[in-house]
């Protein structure tokens, strides 16, 4: 076997490994849990735990960890060794079913939005058997959900699993109505494309802003940026290529099907894409992808930046969330061949369109983060308006439906829904609109607003839930009717008419779209803080409650955590700016000004009456920018102090956005102007040109 297939999945306790290592009946029972969500008995857990431990120990694991995803958006792990003293000074390696199923980490330091009072600091982790365990760095990683003593979700996995169940339940109802009596489960699937930057580690380490905030807080544009379009899909440098090889191998060992790699638009920017899998596993895998990027980069003396906007004026990074629904037999967003299949496809397609139209602010919310505010709705990025791109053929069909083609459908013998022959859509790669935030790409939707650092859990919780909700309404109506075809036609036409406005095939980056969207009545929620505010609208709380995804308390807690994260992130950035300006930029500037002033004096002392006006002008200019920067620095400090005093977290987050962020910009401007005047030898840290081109 060649190397890739040999190493693929070697560190994963996969279904194949379980089948090989578990007694037949245990495997069968476990499979029922995996496939149908049936409860796992302690007896089965005991057998699985023992087999898992033996397998892990063979892979040289000494520890195990309940790996979970707290609301920081990162992952958390605490490692316990398998050792069990035998009483005679020796140890054996032990791992029980109970240890597999449940953990009780001291969880008082994770964000909980007030869900867990400090007197009840315990949190519980529960094994998620639907995502395979794996060995990494000598530890057995067990994917787990994390919740409070009273069962509230404290993590990003629990609600995702709940949303998967919700959409499965409603989609299965629809399939039943279409005559499918076998399918028991519909799975939401995701392939998240990950963008990132790679910089030289030594240069990275000289920038406190990158170290503390993951993005540059100062920096003038270099003479060359991305204007030549010479990086996108360009030849990959050897250093980067050797990084990518090792990165791929690490992922393959973890069973992550890393498929595509290429250079992205910005200099030093790259992308990887895996082959899609269930939203649950894809989310876990994407966390591992981000973690592996950073670790492997470090081994190659590189620093990986996952931030949404590491450089002002240069393309930022996102995460394209390719999403679909499927059964074990078919992709439900794949257009079919027969009219019957196409009617079913159209139902799921229109349900998704309606869900996006109806709940656009929730999707916007799912992409809200301080980093993403530089991409969405900012000066140099696409607007934060949610619209759907369908491509020419589908738009045409949707147009026909809108114009009443469905009501003219009288032919009850076949399910053509009035659209005579739905064409079999070729997966036309050219038929793409890269500017659309939500694009149908042949057999899936691609949600492109997600930020590169974000967990894809949030966007998929929203997608699954909103689509479940529309499917539910459709199923409710269809289950009551005698006339399936007629009612279905009516529903589809109604949903299309109600949500036609959200379909937009034009250039989403064109400024005229903003006015057009406003005329259409589409929401344009420009900032994350405003998006976060919408989370607690009663209609949204009811939606999440209706599908068992979030209880009201869980929504409010999450909203608070998002506000908090927003405020804290900007606070760190502001403090970092203050430090860099005070201790690096201003002293360097002063030194340079003095050095020029000294030379002016020296020249004058040698050449009586020499014209030193040009040199003096430099001193004057530097001096005036110094004064401007000092003033802006004081203003930033006083603004911070004022904002610190705001008690209500939503108000505080808004003040960070609208006041602190402004003050930060005001400090950045004179500093960036100084960078363009002060001599290179005096400038305290590497410039954009160094960072982007010296890799
Ligand atoms: P691109 O969008 O770059 O042209 P592809 O269309 O091949 O690339 O796929 C992009 C991503 O979409 C990949 O991760 C792929 O696995 C994923 N994808 C393909 N089909 C589905 C599906 N049914 N559900 C979810 N993701 C999918
Ligand atoms: Mg894509």
Word description of this protein:
It is a single chain. Helix 6 (158-177) packs parallel to helix 14, helix 9 (238-253) crosses helix 10 and helix 12 crosses helix 17. This protein is an alpha+beta fold. Mean pLDDT is 92; it is low at 407-416 and 418-423. It is 49% helix and 12% strand. It has 22 helices and 17 strands. The strands form three sheets. Strands 9, 10, 11, 12, 13, 14, 15, 16 and 17 form a nine-stranded mixed sheet that branches. Strands 1, 2, 5, 6, 7 and 8 form a six-stranded mixed sheet that branches. A two-stranded antiparallel sheet has the order 3-4. It has three domains: 3-153, Ubiquitin-like (UB roll) (Roll), CATH 3.10.20.70; 163-550, Glutamine synthetase/guanido kinase, catalytic domain (Creatine Kinase, Chain A, domain 2); 565-693, Four Helix Bundle (Hemerythrin (Met), subunit A). It binds adenosine-5'-diphosphate and magnesium ion (MG). Adenosine-5'-diphosphate binds next to strand 9, strand 11 and strand 14.
What is shown here, in short?
The chain is an alpha+beta fold.
What brief labels describe this structure?
695 residues, alpha+beta, Ubiquitin-like (UB roll), 3 domains, nine-stranded mixed beta sheet, binds adenosine-5'-diphosphate, binds magnesium ion
Low-confidence stretches: 407-416, 418-423
User: Number of helical segments?
Assistant: 22
The geometry reads as globular
Number of domains: 3
Main sheet specs: 9 strands, mixed
Q: Give the C-level CATH assignment of the largest domain.
A: Alpha Beta
CATH superfamily membership of the largest domain: Glutamine synthetase/guanido kinase, catalytic domain
Going by helix content, strand content and strand pairing, the class is alpha+beta
DSSP, total strands:
17
The assigned CATH architecture of the largest domain is 2-Layer Sandwich
The helix content is: 40-55%
Tell me the radius of gyration: 28 Å
Protein name: Glutamine synthetase
GO molecular function, one term: glutamine synthetase activity
Domain GS catalytic: 156-585
GO biological process, one term: glutamine biosynthetic process
